[in-house]
Design brief:
The chain is of the alpha/beta class. It has one domain: Aldolase class I (TIM Barrel, Alpha-Beta Barrel). It is 40% helix and 15% strand. It contains 10 helices and 8 strands. The chain has an 8-stranded parallel beta barrel, surrounded by 5 helices. Strand 6, helix 8 and strand 7 form a beta-alpha-beta unit. The protein is globular, with a radius of gyration of 17 Å. The mean pLDDT is 97. Bound molecules: 1,3-dihydroxyacetonephosphate.
């Protein structure tokens, strides 16, 4: 059976003071039935490590370099993330793809780096509104998935996948549970097609998940938790979503 995962993606939010309060509340919360992860901005990983070490909450990063080390100004390697105790790294978020031109091959290379460093990549896939309206959702998501599956081969079973429809991110317009389930079922079938033991791969949904819609989304047979943006910045909201899982 797959254990549910709720991961927070703080994006470019936070401050030492605000984080101290948020991380303190998460560390003090009763142990959840699901796995809980917070993905903080790079400069706050030391703070996350300090506040969460010994708690049931894991922490991770929102991106990493596709390179091992070297002259890559501004980039952060997976080895560095490992030194700060990260267990998970988000790769291929739609905001990285859209604003930083990350192509499928780069996303796949990053996922491999994360695995090689002994951490778990949270690989994001998802279509834009225009692609959905053109009925291209499965083509787009399929391509994004295939690029990673081809490079990772059997190691694909060690990743976490997050389906995040771009039109649902930060818009308050969440996919309906049925819409999300349909794509999740497609992703699981595609994994199977690649020879991956698909039943064991956690598939998270992301895009305007809130305390009031989380339970219904997480009740879908192929939705194994969520990747939470805005609602992960408020301890009460994030913990309510954790409870829903
Ligand atoms: P929101 O929950 O703010 O819509 O963000 C979702 C997301 O992009 C998580 O990675």
């Amino acid at each position: 059976m797959r254990r549910k995962i709720v991961a927070g993606n703080w994006k470019m939010h936070g401050s030492l003071q605000a984080n101290a309060e948020l991380l303190g509340a998460l560390a003090a919360a009763p142990r959840a039935a699901c796995e809980v992860v917070v993905c903080a901005p790079f400069p706050y990983l030391a703070q996350a490590q300090q506040r969460l070490a010994g708690s049931a909450v894991a922490w991770g990063a929102q991106d990493c370099s596709a390179h091992e080390l070297g002259a890559y100004t501004g980039e952060v390697s997976v080895a560095m993330l490992g030194e700060f105790g990260c267990s998970h790294v988000i790769v291929g978020h739609s905001e990285r793809r859209a604003y930083h031109g990350e192509a499928d091959a780069v996303v796949a290379a990053k996922a491999l780096r994360v695995l090689d460093a002994g951490m778990r990549p949270i690989v994001c896939v998802g279509e834009t509104l225009q692609q959905r309206e053109r009925d291209e959702t499965e083509v787009v998501v399929g391509q994004q998935l295939d690029a990673v599956a081809h490079l990772l081969g059997a190691r694909m079973s060690a990743v976490v996948l997050a389906y995040e429809p771009v039109w649902a991110i930060g818009t308050g317009r969440t996919a309906t549970p049925a819409q999300a389930q349909q794509v999740h079922a497609f992703i699981r079938a595609r994994l199977q097609h690649h020879g991956v033991e698909a039943e064991t791969v956690p598939l998270l949904y992301g895009g305007s998940v809130k305390p009031d819609n989380a339970a219904e989304l997480f009740a879908q047979p192929d939705i194994d938790g969520g990747l939470i943006g805005g609602a992960s910045l408020k301890a009460a909201d994030f913990l309510a979503i954790v409870s829903a899982a």
